[in-house]
């Protein structure tokens, strides 16, 4: 009985430590999302490089811990989109965001909109214009609550869907 209690305490402590790590990684990624578009972008990119293994563990744990749907994986994976793009980890970023979207089909609002939007950005960076346009259109199809204003710093989804659609049409005609 004593060994069983120790194992349960260890598991409970490990779970709490992983939960704290997820909180840290989410705060780091959301701060970095802003800073990666500023004058300190190299320092922030380097910091995310250092934390990359922890970010991956946090994403994996948050996606697979079997808790009620949460927007955490959506927020974390989407916040890292600029890092994935800067480092050329386009497929990895796409895979994480897709996994987060699949794991939380009923989560709505800003977290879901940003996930679709940044998935579109990564698809656009890969040259997958059809997929990019579909992701931007998915943002536009999401229900909005009254007063729900989501800021997209790299272009409004209407414009981005148009750009991706134009690029796709030009590519088809060439």
Strand composition percent:
under 5%
Assembly context of the chains? single chain
Distance between the termini: 72 Å
Element order: H for helix, E for strand: HHHHHHHH
Topology, element by element:
Blueprint: H1 2-35, H2 41-64, H3 72-79, H4 81-87, H5 90-103, H6 110-126, H7 129-141, H8 157-173
Please explain how this structure is put together.
The chain is 77% helix and 0% strand. The protein contains 8 helices and no strands. The chain has helices at 2-35, 41-64, 72-79, 81-87, 90-103, 110-126, 129-141, 157-173. Helix 1 crosses helix 3 (72-79). The longest helix has 34 residues, at 2-35. The N and C termini lie far apart (72 Å). Mean pLDDT is 80; it is low at 166-174.
Concise synopsis of the structure shown:
The protein is mainly alpha-helical and 174 residues long. It contains 8 helices and no strands.
Kindly list the characteristics that best describe this protein:
disordered C terminus; 8 helices; mainly alpha; single chain; globular; 174 residues
């Amino acid at each position: 009985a004593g060994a069983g209690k120790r194992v349960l305490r260890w598991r409970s402590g490990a779970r709490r430590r992983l939960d704290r790590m997820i909180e840290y990684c989410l705060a780091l990624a959301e701060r970095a999302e802003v800073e990666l578009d500023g004058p300190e972008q190299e320092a922030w990119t380097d910091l995310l490089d250092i934390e990359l293994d922890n970010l991956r563990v946090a994403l994996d744990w948050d996606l697979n811990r079997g808790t009620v749907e949460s927007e955490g994986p959506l927020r974390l994976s989407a916040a890292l989109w600029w890092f994935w793009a800067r480092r050329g980890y386009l497929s990895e970023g796409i895979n994480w965001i897709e996994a987060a979207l699949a794991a939380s089909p009923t989560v709505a609002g800003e977290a879901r909109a940003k996930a679709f939007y940044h998935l579109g950005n990564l698809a656009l960076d890969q040259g997958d214009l059809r997929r990019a346009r579909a992701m931007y259109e998915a943002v536009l199809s999401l229900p909005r609550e009254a007063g729900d204003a989501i800021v997209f710093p790299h272009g409004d989804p209407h414009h981005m869907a148009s750009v991706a659609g134009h690029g796709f049409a030009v590519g088809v005609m060439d």
